[in-house]
Each structure stands twice: as structure tokens, then as C-alpha cells.
Amino acid sequence: MANYFPILILGLLAAALPLATIFLARAIQTRRPNPAKLEPYESGIAATTFAFDTRFSVRYFLIAVLFVVFDVETIFLFPWAVLFHRLGLFGLIEMVIFLVILVVGYFYVWKRQALDWA
Amino acid sequence: MGAAEAAGSALLTGVAGWLFVGFALLILGTAIAVVWSKNPVHSALFLLASFLLVACVFILEEAEFVGAVQILVYAGGIMVLFLFVIMLVHQRTAAGTPAFQHQWDIALLLLPVFLIPFLYILGTEKFTDIARNPDAFRAVAGRVIGNTEAVSWLMFRDYLLPFEVASVFLLVAMIGAVVLGKRSFEKVD
Amino acid sequence: MKILTPTFLTYVKVLLIVAVVPAIVGFVIVLAERRIMGFMQVRLGPNRVGPKGTLQGLADLLKLVTKEDVTPARAEKFVHFLAPVLAVIPALTALAVIPMGPSIRLARHVSTPLWVADINIGLLFLLAITSIGVYGIILGGWASNNKYSMLGGLRSAAQLVSYEVPMGLSLVAVLLMTRSLSLVEIVMRQDRMQLWFVFPGLLSFFLYFVSGVAETNRNPFDLPEAESELVSGFNTEYSGVKFAFFFLGEYAAMIIISCVAVTVFFGGWLPPFGHVKALSFLHIVPPFLWFLAKVGFFIFCYIWFRSTFPRYRFDQLMALGWKWMIPLSLVNIVIVALAILWTPGRTDGLVRLGWLFGALFLLMFFLAKLRQALARRDRLASEPAGTRQSALKA
Lengths: 118, 189, 394
Hints:
heterotrimer, B: 189 residues, mainly alpha, Four Helix Bundle (Hemerythrin (Met), subunit A), two-stranded antiparallel ribbon, globular, C: 394 residues, 2 domains, 14 helices, 2 strands
């Protein structure tokens, strides 16, 4: 546990560095805002609709769900791999069964074209 | 583990206690902020902070592996999913909704669902053993190695069936996502 | 020298990371990138500020700090401000667990290892912390309230999460050999086994580094900031210091990917062939310099890729990640596990696997070359003489 304390401190310092620099820079920079400058950049054409009003493809949602599933799968593999030398062939069989079940789902996802973006 | 490190952890019992209280208060604070904020993205940010603080508590209690998983899956995975959903929803309609959904009935119904397993775990023999045997979370077959190895030893020998069942759950999640997602974009196309 | 206690030295190292890494990024890597790319594209690159352009970093710093830091009127101001901070935190924090060398002696009875913390879950911690890096980009893209930024942020998030899976899986295959998640132990084990894991883990290494390049949003996977279609993507509405911190986050992430590649696959601070008697003179070079040289090589590879490969299309990028790298990395895990079971307790199986992978890669390389040559011959034969120029280009 004592090992993690410096990491926490490093994290806080890593947050302090950009915060301090942004505030310091504010003190020395010239600010001349004008309405045109504060518009969203749309290649020089005045924006009529804004990003908060637009909607996006549901495919992003699909990718995120599939990611969570595969992420959890990876998490299961980590402790297995670390202790594999003690689990031996039995461990390999266990993991192959686990993976086969998931690969079935993977092929279903592939066949339903959920992995195709276009 | 060297003598210096042992002395270090002995020193930390007092500090660790205060750290726990600090983290716990921060977790509660961020959790309340999740419900309180009007803007869904702000809620998501507070939830992210809350997840990270929970990971800190796990690590503080020497369950390092669980802490890392907490960050990897919840902070790194599920929060991305939440943010996607928030951004996919029409933002203006979302901002206008009231901060509190009056769903006390459902909340009351769900409370025991979450509380009872916790109380059960608190009451089991294994848990009370920890106070007397602080290395229980990091021992494999009596030898102290590490939290990851201990989890592995338990999961791939004692809790084999739950582990395999987990893959079925993941399968269901995958198929469910495709069914939900595909239907909605087939409608759009 | 009572002041040089281990705890004190640890915090000195923490401070060094926060102070030195941004300086290295600004003064060394960015300059090296621009000079090397200039060389590869037959132009000069920055050469005006200071001798041979060496002070370009200072000029950039002054410009970025004094530049007006614009927050668009319709932006979500607080999140817009927070996003670059969130991009920097994980990238710098992850460096805490990278072992850059064994203990060095500072004074009599005072020595300190070249890492901040050697934790039991090192590699998993690294993956976990770097997975937080996505929020800087996605929130920066969202908070700007600009369609380009929003698309860039969403694309980037989808890309990052897609490539996190093959990255994790490729490292799992190496964990079968390392038996530990601690990065220090991983290096030590390569020393004891007299074998760098890149050899039996050749496929893992390729999968890892390709995902690593995708994770850092670099060419050929730099879609989130595709200049030609998204006018710089998630950071369109950022200027001045805030932009600089997005930049720092990206480069620090490159450093981390390179450090992990070196530690896990290329023996960390160990000299090459350290156990061969004839090459024992390589031990004269301090371990830290070996580490630095190896990391430098991977940073160079990043730059090299940038001036070599054309950008992927988004659907190609997703297909590569989900349809090629994930199945390949799962197969790789099973293959490595079988090689370990082949000769339990010894490394023979792994060495044989290494030769097999090496032979396969060479074979594939020559097959690809052969196909290229045949295709060129066919085209030359079928096209009229006047259009030879196009055939040569392909």
C-alpha cells in the first residue's frame, strides 16, 4: 500500500502542472475577444446549428458495449496468465472453454455486421 | 517483505485510517454530486471521480488487483459507454429535464437487492478472518505472493463454475447489444 | 547524508517526472520529429532558432504561453477547461511504475532504483491509468460545441476503446511467460531466462505496437485529428496553453507506449545479448542509457511511421482492430500457452516458438514482396508503353 502513495502524489502534481500553467498564462496573455472569434469554427462560414443539437450514429454505442464485454474478458485473462505456470493444462482447458463461449458471440456479432462501420 | 517495509505498514495503520475516512467522504460527496448536477456530462464526470476514489479505497485495503479492475472496467470502460449514450441523446432535451426523477418506489425496491448480498458477505466467515490474517488477500496456497495471484488461485480452482458462467453472461451482453443497436440503426437506414 | 532517505528520494523522482518529461517532450521529441520528418521529406525543418534549430522548443513555449487562450462563447466552459488537464494526468502518472534502470549509487550507503514505485499489479495499473486518457479527448471534443470537435472526440473514443482490447490481449500472451505483473520483475525475469520476450512474443509485440500507435492517435491511425476532414478534430477550438497540454498528453502517451514495449519485450535496461561472453563489453554502457536508447528507437519509429504511412479510413481502422487483431491475439495466447506446456519449467518450447514465428514472418515478408513483383510485371505487360510511369509508382 505504501508503494501507491507516491503515485497518488504524482497524480496530484500532474494535475497541478496544467492547472498552474493555464492560470499563469492567463495573467500574461493579451485577451481581445470578439464575437466572430468566439463562434465555433466551421471553415469560415457562420454556424447555423450547433454540435449540442446534432445526433450521432448508434454504432458508437454498439462499439462501447462490445468494448466493455471484451474488456471484462481481458480482465479474466490477466490473473489466469499470471498463474498459468501453476494451473497447467487444466488451466488452459478452462480458459479455452471460456473463450469458445465468447467466440460464439463474437461470430454472431460479426455475422450481424455489427463490426462493419460503413 | 523487508523490515523497513513492515515498519512502514505499521506506521500506516493510523494514516491509512484517516485516508479511508477521507476517501469515503469524497466518494459520498461525488456520489451526491452525480445526482445533484443538472448537466448529464457533469454527472458523468462526478461518477468518474467517484469510481476512481473507490479504486483508491480498494488499493488502500490491499486489494490492488480489484482496484486496478475498478479503474479499467468502470472508469475506463463503462463511463465511456455512459458518455456515448449522453452524447447520442439529444442534448437540449436532456438538459431541460428535472434533476430528480421521482422514482422512490423503484429505489426502495432495489435497496434490499443490493444491500442483502453486502450484509451476507460481511457476515461470512471468510470476511471476519481478514482482521486476524491480513495477508489473506494475497496468499496462494499459504504463500504470500500478490493480490492478482490470490484472486487467480481462487477463481480458477474454487470458483470455476461461476467463472465459466461469467462467459455466458458476457455472451448475453454481446448479443443484447447487437439486437438493440442493430434494430435502431436498421430503422434509420 | 541523513536527508537522502528512500522516502525523500522517491518524492525527488516524482518531481523529476513532472518537471523533466514535459521538457523532454517540448525540447527534444518535438524538435527531433520536425527535423527527422524534414529530412525524410527532403526539406530542412526548423533551423532558425538557436544553433541548428535547437531552441525551437523555447520559442514554441513562449508563443503558446502568450497566445490568447480562446474559449468559444457557446462552449461548456468548465469542461472545456478541464479536458486538457484530464489529458495530461494519466499520461504523466503512468510513468511512476516504469523501471528505467536498476539501483544507482548517489553517495556512500545511498542508492536508489530508477523507478518511483514497483507495484505488484504494474502492467494492469498501466493499462488502467492510460485508459483514463480517453476522457481528455472525448470531453474536449464535446465541450467545444463544434461539430468537427465532437466528431473527432467520438471517433477518438471509439478508436481508443477498440484498440485497448487487442493491446490487453497481446500483453496477456507475454504474462504467460513473465508470471508477474510487476514491471521490475518482468525485466529481471528476462535477465534470468536469458531471453527477451520479443522473441517468443514476436506476434504479441506486433499486435502491441500497432495497438499502441492507434492508442496514441498517431499516424497511420490519426483519424481523431485528421486535418483534411476534421480540421484537427477534438482540438479545433483549443489554442495556447490548453492546446499545448493536449499535445503534451499525446507525446507523453507515446513515451509510455515505448517504455512498456521496451520493458516487456526488449529487456528494459538490459544490454542486448548480455549473457553472451563475447559481447560482455556491452555492460560498460550504463543500464539507464540502454533503456533510453531503446525508448528513443521506438519514438523514432513513431516519427518514421508518420512520414511513411497514409492515414486509414475509419471503417478500415475499426475492421483492423475488431476483425484482425482481436482474433489474432486470442490465437496467439493459446499458441504461447501451448508452447509453455510443451516443455514445462524450461524455456526450450518458447525458444522454438520464437524461431517458428521468425521463420513465418520472413516467409510472409518474401511472399508479400513476390506478390508485389508479380503484380508489377502484369501491369507492365498489360499497359501500353506510354503509361509506364504509373506502374513504377505502384
